[in-house]
Specification:
Shape of chain A: globular
Helix content of chain A: 55-70%
Structural class of chain B: mainly beta
Order of helices and strands of chain A: HHHHHHH
Number of helices of chain A: 7
Strand order of the largest sheet of chain B: 1-32-31-30
Number of strands of chain B: 32
Structural class of chain A: mainly alpha
Largest sheet of chain B: 4 strands, antiparallel
Largest interface: A-B, 41 and 39 residues
Radius of gyration of chain A: 17 Å
Number of helices of chain B: 4
Oligomer: heterodimer
Chain lengths: ~210, ~475
């Protein structure tokens, strides 16, 4: 669980940094965005592998497992929902390094050398997520970024970030996120969160 | 160079501080710095009295430092788009105490903030790099660049003025034609030395992404400029055209895996250049092989040590600077934790690896949180290629002697730069009991970083930029 929490924290932090970097002077820095996305991808893999391991421990007899792709759109969507309330808390100093177990598993699952194959598949997953969200939320026109600003290295990612935040706007405080029972009960804090409202204002300003 | 039995060591030669006041006033403060190290304490007292709040604004952060080919001039660029040039005082018999200090020679605003209307983006005026051109006449030329535009500046001295014009009087006003009764020849009269900087060429609109490097070719006619995905070749006389020689932009931007982080021409072979990537690789290209140098001639990469692989491995392996040695036989690369020296004839691994601050390896997570992991440190060679230098945190900088395999950590700070005293070596305590005079890793100030350093091309004089302060140290035998 430590590993999962840590990975999630880093994912949250990366999302926040990426979002923040769009607003800084000089525009989107390609190198920085690339590095952030690399960290996010690593954190995501670590999180997923830790999750799979946790599932392994809980249900050791099941020969077949749900493919990791299908619960994923939900997971990461919820991650990003919880990302904003947690953003304020992520600035605490990191004292624990990823558990050895997580690291070992990760190094065995990753291919050596260039992980070029992982990048396109990551983008594919993001597009799946997009489709899932399209059905669930309506995005008002004014919240969509103008085409000029959507240019850059990761236009799809930008749109995804956009939609996930605007999805929060549309979803009221009464709708709790659906969580699979296997996951820990995480505190679901909503509206009266200054960080969230700031981010929402930023989205509107976009 | 490193403290030995004889009284050797690095002493502070000149210190200049950029302060948060409009540019002219800050120039004045710099000018008063031309004094012996013995006067340092006095000047600081004076400075602190002048301002209640000794804080500075971010526009004063030094973003590049570069000696010219002779070492007599030192150019610095800052985040506010200004260039300040220091000149070395001639050591003369009349001023035996001057010891070759550096004084402000010229200050000018090189770049202004711009706005890209098409993309609704502001273009920062921060000077990313300055490169001098070899001197060919009395004037000095340098190239300075921000994220999008490169400018060629001419710095010239004027110490004579013409007097006795026929058509205008001394104020410059036109004389009444009826008043002109006789013809005279204007004569040149001496005047106070004035240093003028004028932009001679502006090389614009060639880069979609942010320029990270410029490098003057050994033919002294061309230069390259590199951004995240492309490298362009320019001729110094031609501003409306440039040749694209490297393009690593993928057809689909979503497949992007690496970017160009630095590029440099070979110091002697005008057809060879190298560029480094965010994946920790260096490619050497020969312009004779094809017009578009997408295929490298040599590929330098050190295989990753699987045992040291961690979460942030990819980020810290990104190369932030690449520099050829003066001989042209070696090149040096700087990644987040180490400096590596490569032999151009061996692509499989570097010939030397020097750890700069290995104690940070266990702190990568917190360094990611405070954005320090993205810091781009530079590195430099000394004139004889026997030593290399690079910066670190807490205003520390490190020097490595390649022959004796010794290294030293020094600190650039006012408190430690006492007059006539050598810089004391510093040590970071990595664990266990902290000895006296050691500093523990947790006490390091990560806001005080030395990203830019420069070494005089011939002598043991170094320039170190610590945020908004410039320190110039000289190695002298007592």
């Amino acid at each position: 669980m430590e590993v999962q929490k840590e990975a999630q924290r880093i994912m949250t932090l990366s999302v926040w940094k990426m979002y923040h970097s769009r607003m800084q002077r000089g525009g989107l820095r390609l190198h920085r965005s690339l590095q952030l996305s690399l960290v996010m991808r690593s954190a995501r893999e670590l999180y997923l592998s830790a999750k799979v391991e946790a599932l392994d421990l809980e249900t050791p007899s099941t020969p077949t497992r749900c493919p990791p792709l299908s619960p994923e759109p939900m997971d990461t969507q919820e991650d990003e929902e919880e990302a904003s309330p947690r953003a304020a808390e992520t600035l605490a100093r990191c004292s624990a390094h990823p558990a050895r177990v997580g690291r070992k598993r990760r190094s065995s699952s990753l291919s050596n050398g260039v992980d070029a194959g992982l990048v396109p598949s990551k983008k594919a997953r993001l597009e799946e997520k997009e489709e899932a969200e399209d059905a669930s939320s309506e995005v008002p026109d004014r919240l969509l970024p103008p085409p000029a600003q959507a240019e850059g290295a990761f236009p799809n990612l930008a749109r995804v970030l956009q939609r996930s935040f605007s999805g929060l706007l549309n979803r009221g405080p009464t709708a709790p996120p659906t969580a699979p029972p296997a996951r820990d009960a995480k505190p679901v804090c909503r509206p009266a969160d200054p960080v969230l409202s700031v981010l929402v204002r930023a989205v509107v300003a976009f | 160079m490193f403290s030995g039995p004889r009284q050797r060591g690095l002493r502070l030669l000149t210190h200049a501080e950029w302060c948060g006041v409009p540019s002219e006033a800050s120039v004045l403060l710099c000018k008063t710095v031309s004094m012996r190290a013995g006067d340092l304490a006095q000047w600081f007292r004076c400075l602190l009295h002048k301002r209640k709040d000794p804080s500075w604004i971010s526009a004063d952060i030094i973003s590049t430092v570069e000696f010219n080919y002779s070492g007599d001039l030192l150019a610095t660029g800052d985040k506010g788009g200004r260039v300040v040039i220091f000149q070395r005082e001639q050591e003369s018999k009349s001023r035996p105490h001057s010891r070759g200090e550096y004084n402000v020679y010229s200050t000018f605003q090189s770049h202004e903030p711009e706005f890209d209307y098409l993309k609704s983006l502001e273009i920062e005026e921060k000077i990313n790099k300055i490169r001098w051109l070899p001197q060919q006449n009395a004037a000095h030329f340098l190239l300075s660049t921000n994220d999008k535009t490169i400018k060629l500046w001419k710095i010239s001295e004027r110490d004579k003025r013409a007097e006795g014009y026929n058509l205008k009087d001394e104020d410059g006003r036109l004389r009444d034609p009826f008043r002109i009764t006789a013809l005279r020849v204007p004569i040149l009269k001496p005047m106070d030395l004035m240093v003028e900087a004028s932009p001679r060429r502006i090389f614009a609109n060639a880069h979609t992404y942010h320029i990270n490097s410029i490098s003057v070719n050994s033919d002294h006619e061309t230069y390259l400029s590199a951004d995240d995905l492309r490298i362009n070749l320019w001729h110094l006389e031609i501003t409306d055209r440039s040749f694209n020689i490297v393009d690593i932009k993928p057809a689909n931007m979503e497949e992007l895996t690496e970017v160009i982080t630095a590029a440099e021409f070979h110091p002697h072979q005008c057809n060879v250049f190298v560029y480094s990537s965010s994946k920790g690789t260096i490619r050497l290209c020969d312009m004779r092989s094809s017009a578009l140098c997408d295929r490298h001639s040599k590929f330098f990469e050190e295989p990753e040590d699987p045992s040291s692989r961690s979460f942030f491995s990819e980020i810290i392996s990104s190369i932030s600077d690449v520099k050829f040695s003066h001989s042209g036989r070696y090149m040096m690369t700087r990644d987040y934790l180490s400096v590596k020296v490569w032999d151009l004839n061996m692509e499989s691994r570097p010939v030397e690896t020097h750890q700069v601050h290995e104690y940070l390896r266990s702190k990568l997570c917190s360094l990611y949180e405070n954005d320090c992991i993205f810091d781009k440190f530079e590195c430099c060679w000394n004139g004889s290629d026997s030593a290399i230098m690079t910066g670190s945190y807490n205003n520390f900088f490190r020097m490595f002697d390649r022959n004796t395999r010794r290294d030293v950590t020094l600190e650039a700070s006012r408190e430690n730069s006492k007059p006539r005293a050598s810089l004391k070596p510093r040590k970071v305590c990595t664990g266990g009991k902290r000895k006296k005079d050691e500093i523990s890793v947790d006490s390091l100030d990560f806001n005080k970083k030395i990203l830019h350093t420069a070494w005089h091309p011939m002598e043991n004089i170094i320039a170190v930029a610590a945020t908004n302060n410039l320190y110039i140290f000289q190695d002298k035998i007592n």
